Amino acid sequence: MPPRLARVVSTMRDDVAAARRNDPAAGSDVEVVLLYPGIHAIWSYRLAHRLWRRSVLLRPLARAISQLARALTGVEIHPGATLGPRLFIDHGMGVVIGETAVIGADVMLYHGVTLGGRTTSPGKRHPTLEDGVTVGAGAKILGNITIGEGARIGANAVVVHDVPADAVAVGVPARVRKVAVVDPFEVDPAIYI
């Protein structure tokens, strides 16, 4: 198998494994490959993203692939976004990921999540989600902010400020409610908000 094809197959296997790991309802690899719209949206994004980066002349084709995937899956991922490995989008419907969004490895998004902008100015205007972030159903993360590694965003939260690593953010507007304690024998009361 050519090296490039081997990388594609390996990435697809990682995506299926992430879905199986994060969704207790996943019955088999075949079920995930054939019936999971989040997986289909991510795979379509990867093709569109490759075209988007290759040439400005191919960007309309990349957008067309993105829009077709949106129509088929209910998930809109701009081909200019940057998605890390093993992203899992559970259920998928209504997820929107903006052009300058950056998503790290092992991130999980539930349905209805928006990674949107708050300005029409050019440049970075969408959020960055670091590795291991989980975003609950209906949450809106808006603007050029960073959600720290391992953070959890509650369902329907509206996040407009940075969230530290290992924190839990809930509410409208979202507030950090808890930051995980690294060493249970050294509890610092200042880390609880």
Q: Give the low-confidence spans.
A: 187-193
Helix coverage percent of residues? 25-40%
- How are the strands of the largest sheet arranged? 3-6-9-12-14-15
CATH architecture of the domain at 81-193: 3 Solenoid
User: What general outline do the C-alpha atoms trace?
Assistant: globular
Task: Classify the secondary structure makeup into a structural class.
Answer: alpha/beta
Element order: H for helix, E for strand: HHHHEEEEEEEEEEEEEEE
Q: Radius of gyration in whole Å, from Cα? A: 17 Å
Provide the β-strand percentage band.
15-25%
- According to CATH, the homologous superfamily of the domain at 81-193 is Hexapeptide repeat proteins
Strands, total number: 15
> Tally the helices: what do you get?
4
CATH class of the domain at 81-193 equals Mainly Beta
Q: State the CATH topology of the domain at 81-193.
A: UDP N-Acetylglucosamine Acyltransferase, domain 1
Distance between the termini: 53 Å
Instruction: Give the integer mean of the pLDDT values.
Output: 91
Largest sheet: 6 strands, mixed
